[in-house]
Design brief:
The termini are far apart. Helix content is 41%, strand content 20%. Strand 5, helix 5 and strand 6 (104-108) form a beta-alpha-beta unit. The strands form two sheets. It has a four-stranded mixed beta sheet. The chain has a three-stranded mixed beta sheet with strand order 2-3-4. The chain is built from seven helices and seven strands; from the N terminus they run αββαββααβαββαα. With 141 residues, the protein is α/β, with parallel strands linked by helices. It has a single domain (4-138), classed as CBS-domain. InterPro entries: CBS_dom, CBS_dom_sf, Diverse_CBS-Domain.
Amino acid sequence: MTTAKDIMHPGAHWIPAHETLDRAAQMMRDHTVGALPVSAGGEKDRMVGIITDRDIVTKCVASGHDPSTVTAGELCDGTPRWIESSADVDAVLETMQSRRIRRLPVIEDKKLVGMISEADLALHLSDEQVAGWAEKVYSRA
């Protein structure tokens, strides 16, 4: 059985909710990622959301806000989603499809151990699985 841990990109990094969006953008650049889970108060704290490079551009910069004054916590909305590292691929796909999300943090022993993105799905799953996922996540219905 293929698990979330088998297909995730290991070594995901948190950003504390109090950090500014310019710092988040720097972290994304430095780690070559497009998303960061946001923690309530530090590296090992609970996840309060996730921010993406697109969020920074569309919800901050394009709205005329200064990314050096807006915090990661201010940008988070909704209930954060994650999956246990031992979950099978069907559970990963169901979680991402039902919530229409493109990135999914992976947790093991209450610690962030990785992230699953579209690229990880494309690398590890069949063309049929990826196509089914994309149809459900990207459809307008």
